[in-house]
Amino acid sequence: MQFDYATQILEGSQRAAARLISWLEDEDERAYEWMAKLYPHTGNAYIIGITGSPGAGKSTLTDKLARQIRKDGLKVGIIAVDPSSPFTGGALLGDRVRMSELSTDPEIYIRSMATRGFLGGMSKATGDVVRVLDALGKDVIIIETVGVGQDEVDIIGIADTTCLVLVPGLGDAIQSMKAGIMEIADVFVINKADKLGADQLSAEVCGRLSMDAHIKPSDWTPLVRSTVGVEDIGVLELWEAIRLHREFLEQSGSFHEKRRQRTYQETLRMIHTELFKAVREALQSNGRLDRAVEDILEGKRDPYSLMQKVVSEWLSIPQAQKEAS
Amino acid sequence: MQFDYATQILEGSQRAAARLISWLEDEDERAYEWMAKLYPHTGNAYIIGITGSPGAGKSTLTDKLARQIRKDGLKVGIIAVDPSSPFTGGALLGDRVRMSELSTDPEIYIRSMATRGFLGGMSKATGDVVRVLDALGKDVIIIETVGVGQDEVDIIGIADTTCLVLVPGLGDAIQSMKAGIMEIADVFVINKADKLGADQLSAEVCGRLSMDAHIKPSDWTPLVRSTVGVEDIGVLELWEAIRLHREFLEQSGSFHEKRRQRTYQETLRMIHTELFKAVREALQSNGRLDRAVEDILEGKRDPYSLMQKVVSEWLSIPQAQKEAS
User: Fold this and answer.
1) Per-residue pLDDT of chain B (325 residues; tens, 9 = 90+)
2) Beta-bridge partners for B190
3) Which residues are registered as beta bridge partners of B185?
4) ipTM score of the complex?
């Protein structure tokens, strides 16, 4: 008899969850059967996104927030997403450091993730891992990302409440705001608030918020909270701000709409990632892509025509449209 | 008779280039015909990547570097890539600011880009724009990115020489190094070198480099240069370091291998992006995806089974394999 990962995970087995997550990261097809079985049991966890520049103290703050949430008797999952190194892979070191600090509490599950280097795969994989932790019974899942790139914006788009962590002295705060990252934040966290410049930064953010009130397409006015992560100061207030945002989402009806949009994007992403994987594997098998690249380098063909040829030949969408209707 | 964008661009028309780039950004299919025609005329420009945290002074440094390169009589293109805002789009303000500073020199062409919000689309679009500027006759193309996410790593992977800009006081420098960003740098730039802590940062980087000499899979030992961008100090030395790296690539044979790998990745990326466009359009037409999402939200189906169903129906790999062989 086959080992039943779905039942095991629903009963709270972290070992079974860890195995399934590894399969997901490796794009192992065995994962899908269990993910399909787990899916109806997901959607219960509340998802918090924590993002901000490297050095902003996100890891420490995430840990303290997790402990704070535990005080309410809620189970917590943490997904730490590191941008991958193209050569050495990313998350391993961070993983070990984090585990040692929080591993005393069995109800906090931490997973670090690094990309496997394939396009867009990180957002899909993060969504998958969220669902596994959700099925595992976690009440709150915190996704922590490093950096402010497009991939991070996509990943953080999974969250119900997004916290942007800023710190005084980390260059010009307005710089990161210019980059358009401000609009994704539901809660601004001024971390290391005991440092010089914290009050000014806080005032700057508030000023920008009142100025740009129109750019956030909802009626929610982002909250600003000050914390000192390492000293556990302001963490309760941060957790309260997150709960205020949750209440807002639930009472305004935005919650359902947000989840609908997320399901829409995730479904699209899943289909695309799976299609690309199949096409990539087919192109790479037997050195077919290698030959095409040699032809391109020798000027015998160009990648634009190749791209159009591959897509038109490999996708039989008209048939699928018939089937689906 | 149709307007011949390819000939116009090869003759140096910045207007024709700007139009073609807009089509590429909009994923307008008209672009591909001209890109296919231009492709054989590309591959001549040398590509420099400039990356680092927001606030590191990359824009100023890029401008000064461009002016320095112009002194050698070389034509320069600058592509400034901003992480997109999911709501308002990114690059417009930066674009205007930059144009006013360098627009006096007609041989410096600047283009700011923001994502249109699609996965991996930014890297593909940046590669496309590099080729347009290459065909336009630019000798050196500088790609400047904000942030340290996976998208930026992909974009910067297009460059022949990658410069990582660090500044003293911008949080813990070791933080960004932990994130695996160090391995992508061919030249480290300690900018704002007149600030407190610059010497220490420089020593730290040199220390890490001698420690981690094994992680960079090439015989190139990254160079470390100090600059004060706003005062134009050290920019000539930075340009010399870039030229040293170029000589190394050309003499060691790495240059061809690097271009081959880039072509390989770019071809894959093009197919990835084009697939997504096809998938998105097919699923969105007639509200098909909307209906599937409603079913998923109501628990009637799960996205994993849907994904596998769509992929198995749409993919005609056997036929494509026959065609390609």
Assistant:
1) 578 999 999 999 999 999 999 888 777 888 988 999 999 999 999 999 998 876 788 889 999 999 999 999 999 999 988 654 433 333 434 443 455 466 677 788 888 876 554 445 667 788 899 999 999 999 999 999 865 555 667 777 789 999 999 888 765 554 455 455 677 889 999 999 999 889 988 988 888 787 765 555 567 889 999 999 999 999 999 999 999 999 999 999 888 888 898 899 888 888 888 888 888 888 888 788 899 999 998 888 999 998 888 888 887 765 445 444 4
2) B166, B226
3) none
4) 0.78
Q: What is the amino acid identity at position A45? A: A
Q: E strands along chain B, which residues?
A: 46-52, 76-82, 108-114, 140-145, 161-166, 187-190, 223-226
CB contact under 8 A, B271 and A310: yes
Residues ≥6 apart with Cβ < 8 Å to B183? A85, A86, A87, A88, B215, B216
Residues with Cβ within 8 Å of residue A194, at least 6 apart in sequence: A228, A231, A233
Q: Which of B76, B52, B53 is nearest to B66 (CA)?
A: B76
The Cα A55–Cα A230 span in angstroms is 13
Given a contact cutoff of 8 angstroms between Cβ atoms, the answer to whether B276 and A313 are in contact is no
**What CATH superfamily is the domain A43-252?**
P-loop containing nucleotide triphosphate hydrolases (3.40.50.300)
Q: Which chain A residues are Cβ-neighbours of B324 within 8 angstroms? A: 288
**HSE-CB of A20 using CA atoms within 13 angstroms:** 31
End-to-end distance of chain B based on CA atoms, in angstroms? 37
Looking at chain B, the number of H-run helices and the number of E-run strands are 14, 7
Coil vs helix vs strand at A303: helix
- With CA atoms as reference, report the closest residue to A56 among A184, A164, A179: A164
Q: Residue B241: enclosing H or E segment and its boundaries?
A: helix B235-252
Of A87, A264, A323, the CB nearest to B293: A264
Q: A235, A192, A190: which is closest to A68 by C-alpha? A: A235
Task: State both tokens at B50.
Answer: 């400039």
Locate all alpha helices (DSSP H) within chain B, ordered by sequence. 5-10, 14-25, 30-38, 58-70, 92-102, 121-135, 150-156, 173-176, 198-211, 235-252, 254-284, 288-297, 303-314, 317-324
- The domains of chain A are located at 43-252, 266-324
What is residue B305's three-state secondary structure? helix
Sheet with B46-52: list strands edge to edge: B108-114, B76-82, B140-145, B46-52, B161-166, B187-190, B223-226
Distance (Å, rounded) from C-alpha B245 to C-alpha B159?
12
A266–B289 C-beta distance less than 8 A: no
CA distances from A10 to A95, A184, A323 (A): 24, 32, 34
CA trace torsion A44, A45, A49, A55 (10° rounding): -170
Mean pLDDT of A10-26: 91
Distance from CA of B89 to the nearest CA of A (A): 7
Which residue in A305, A313, A320 is closest to B310 by CB distance?
A: A320
Assigned architecture for domain B42-252: 3-Layer(aba) Sandwich (3.40)
Cβ–Cβ gap B320/A170 under 8 Å: no
The percent of residues in chain A predicted with pLDDT above 70, rounded, is: 78
**pLDDT, tens digit, 9 for 90 and up, residues A96-112:** 345 546 667 878 888 88
